[in-house]
From TrEMBL, chains A, B:
Species whose genome carries this gene: Denticeps clupeoides
The name this protein goes by in its record: UDP-glucuronosyltransferase
Family: Belongs to the UDP-glycosyltransferase family.
SUPFAM superfamilies reported for this sequence: UDP-Glycosyltransferase/glycogen phosphorylase
Gene3D superfamilies noted in UniProt: Glycogen Phosphorylase B (3.40.50.2000)
Membrane topology: Single-pass membrane protein
Top-level division of the source organism's lineage: Eukaryota
Taxonomic path: Eukaryota, Metazoa, Chordata, Craniata, Vertebrata
Membrane-spanning residues: 477-500
Coiled-coil region(s): none
Length: 514, 514
């Protein structure tokens, strides 16, 4: 199905791509790659569950869906995500024990095992996929088992992800070296310059995450992957497209098959809808503030929403707030609430002064792309470290969702808007984003097409993948060398003893004879 | 002196570059970067010693030289290189003790210290360089102390190199992780797939090279660098431009400021001089063979040269042989000897069937660029591993300079020319070279201009540079944690003992009372 693709002296024809995306923001950015693949004349099939929350609602423009049935309904998954958000945003009003038991219930309720089996044990779907003879599988590990599917179809695999479990996946299965002495691990509370107590804590977190990762994969995934393991399978990935870049991540070494494409989804802004543009223009010289806590947050905490609304009423800027659910009572006239906002285009608007964000990576990269300083109110997972990085670089003020008072938000907005250092620092990060040898999206597409052209990228794959952990750390070699040295010392000592005994014996005999 | 350079929304103006090149092949490839810098309107100054063997003979086209005097004459250095070549190519006829003593004499005779002092303690030269206000220093570590000079001038440093001392420099000073379990070290006799005995040997070589590297830099260089060390100084490099790429190197992880530009000096072929083209065309369908043992080899071993000539007389191809010095007596009519050949253009000629090479990296990359299979006759240093890699990939036959007989060369040429697998494998490596997201030379220039634009590339620099070795390996953390655990166990035991004693005492007292 694959002809040749144009690069240098190669000719163009279309390849055949299977995409296994994640949901929510994961789909929003995978979608950008899908669109670009379609644009470049490739045939794209998106594999999606019948209970999908976001992916299946996309218009099939230039690509097609392949559905697989799961025994659950969409609303059950939807309820699961809501429940997860609830657990986090109501964390403060709950005891730790209660929170932990809710998380465990949630995990019991929907296991990776179940989705996985629904996908790979569906003979009809697998038959159709086999017949399609794909050239490459693009896979976001948000959805389990895509790597196993690629392996079963015998198609080269490309992983698309940002970070998984404090780099545990990339480190353990992808052979990315990650040394806890200078690579802050999840949950990150430090930068890459750590003092001694911080390094102790980071080291312990590193050990803990590694243990949890091994336990979870061993219990949840490995039984499905028999006779190999999850790590063996995903470790076969030809290329790791990482949604990260060094203007917004701590530099660390990586194998040659890691390609950093952070911010590839960003594009120059399109014009706003007429009424929105009018509202934005009405802000005059004060400009506007954009506020969004991400697509998962649905106003689960009304008390907080009222605080936000009160604070926003006190600033001179106009505010565009993406919020689904109930309207806050304290909403001021300068603030408009929308179910959905064209966030990328708003961030690129010249009147935009600041962005209040939960710290999702898509939004942060869009703010970086357009150089808009941040007020960060992280909710969960990697959002804390996302905001922390920007705070450490002097491009964001970070607020605590649970402890935040009205005045804190007013002050934070005043700081990032009126203290020029925030804009300047954000512009510096933005310049680094735009100053790369190739554009991130072109880089992603190049390597996807490379894998299709060359049926893989084996020349970029480190041999560490074929070593056991004790071979990797040369422990077998060390034991052998110590044994050799030990044996040598033992023989030396024995020989010396023997010689001394012989001498003594002779001397005694001589003495006796005398 | 630096305006802004065009990339994306940046404007163009010219930067000011100081180049500290190496001699011989090192200069030949640095020269390509110099030419491209000139082409792009940058002002280039090449720093060179008055006793330079090759650099100072270049025509100052678009760039200028800055000389510094050394107390030696050019012929002394020239004699040193000849002596070094002699030591290697006559190695077989000499005892090991004699060889080692010759190497030690050579090292005593010309110390890095001497060249270094001549460069940085020359106040006139340093004054001129300071006034020039350079934007970047391009430095090949073949010449000592360029990094120290950049530091003294307070100008960002870019290192241009292939490999130094079995990756010891990159590993120890550049923070490139290099694990002996899958990274073959110098002198390489294996690939990156090693069995147990090979890993033992590789591990020992790794330890040995590390020790020698520390000793040599400590004795030869560190005294000059006081109060910092050589590693501190060269470790400040913003970018490491490595003359290597994964089509011709074993993949391994690297920090984000390492950029692999191997083969950047290769270009499409230019037409040959008329008489040479006539000779090439006279070969008919048999085609031609190109033969060069590099610019340092000057026919030091006449016996071998006669063997070469006899062998070349027995093949149907026409041969172009780059050889200085005495002509071999056994030269056949199909072979022409030249003082100098346009090697790049000849390798790109459609009639070229094979390349007999000593395995210098420039020549190998040219052969890769044009897809010409190799007969490798390595002489010294990295040439063995260069050829070994190509042999392992099935693109070269390797011969032993000292054990080679006439028939071996005839057979080797017959194999690489008439067994199609050699051409096919070489073409595969060649395709990987041409199938990159950007051209290697553009990549090099991008990062040089990036460093000029941004006064460095700090965002690509791993924090490992700021850690001591025991911090890097978390040894201080481990000791601390062990101490805590130890103290805890000690206190537990003591407490238990105390409790038991208390219990016993009470029981005894009770018993007594009873």
């Amino acid at each position: 199905p694959l002809g040749l693709l144009l690069v240098g002296f190669y000719q163009v024809e279309s390849g055949n791509v299977l995409v296994i995306p994640g949901e929510f923001s994961h789909w929003h950015n995978m979608r950008v790659i899908v669109e670009e693949l379609v644009e470049r004349n490739h045939s794209v099939t998106v594999l999606v569950s019948t209970a999908s929350n976001t992916v299946k609602y996309a218009k099939e423009e230039g690509f097609k869906f392949q559905f697989f049935s799961v025994s659950r309904e969409e609303h059950e998954f939807s309820a699961m995500w809501d429940e997860m958000t609830d657990i986090w945003v109501q964390f403060k009003n709950s005891t730790i024990l209660h929170t932990v038991s809710r998380v465990i219930d949630l995990m019991k309720n929907v296991s990776a095992f179940e989705i996985c089996e629904a996908m790979i044990k569906n003979e009809t779907v697998m038959g159709t996929l086999r017949q399609s003879k794909f050239d490459v599988v693009l896979y976001d590990p948000f959805t389990p088992c895509g790597d196993l599917l690629a392996d079963m179809l015998n198609v080269p695999l490309i992983v698309v992800m940002k970070m998984f479990f404090g780099y545990a996946l990339e480190r353990i299965c992808g052979q990315m070296p990650s040394t806890p002495s200078y690579t802050p691990t999840h949950p990150v509370r430090f930068s890459d310059r750590m003092n001694f107590p911080e390094r102790v804590q980071n080291f312990l977190q590193h050990v803990m995450l590694t243990t949890i990762f091994y336990t979870l994969t061993h219990v949840q995934l490995n039984p499905l992957y028999k006779p190999i393991t999850f790590c063996d399978s995903i470790g076969k990935a030809e290329i790791w497209l990482m949604r990260s870049y060094w203007n917004w991540d701590y530099p660390r070494p990586f194998p040659p098959n890691f390609v950093f494409i952070g911010g590839y989804h960003c594009k120059p802004p399109k014009p706003l809808p007429k009424d929105m543009e009018d509202f934005v223009q009405s802000s005059g010289d004060d400009g506007i503030v954009i506020f969004s806590l991400g697509s998962i947050y649905k106003n689960q905490n009304l008390e907080m929403s009222n605080k936000f609304a009160s604070a926003l009423g006190k600033i001179p800027q106009k505010v565009l707030w993406a919020l689904r659910g109930e309207k806050p009572e304290t909403l001021a006239p300068n603030t408009r609430i929308y179910d959905w906002i064209p966030q990328k285009d708003l961030l690129g608007h010249p009147k935009t002064k600041a962005f209040i964000s939960h710290g999702g990576s898509n939004g942060i990269f869009e703010a970086i792309y357009h150089g808009v300083p941040l007020v960060g109110i992280p909710l969960f997972v990697d959002q804390f470290e996302n905001i922390l990085f920007m705070k450490n670089k002097g491009a964001a003020v970070m607020l605590d969702f649970f402890k935040m008072e009205v005045e804190d938000l007013v002050e934070a907005l005043d700081t990032v808007i009126n203290n020029p250092s925030y804009k300047k620092n954000m512009m510096r990060i933005s310049e680094l984003h735009h100053d790369q040898p190739t554009k991130p999206l072109d880089r992603a597409l190049f390597w996807i097409e490379f894998v299709m052209r060359n049926k893989g990228a084996k020349h970029l794959r480190v041999q560490a993948h074929n070593l056991t952990w004790y071979q990797y750390y040369c422990l077998d070699v060390a034991v052998f060398l110590l044994a050799v040295v030990g044996l040598f010392v033992f023989l030396m000592v024995k020989t010396c003893c023997f010689c001394i005994r012989m001498c003594c014996w002779r001397t005694r005999r001589k003495n006796k004879t005398e």
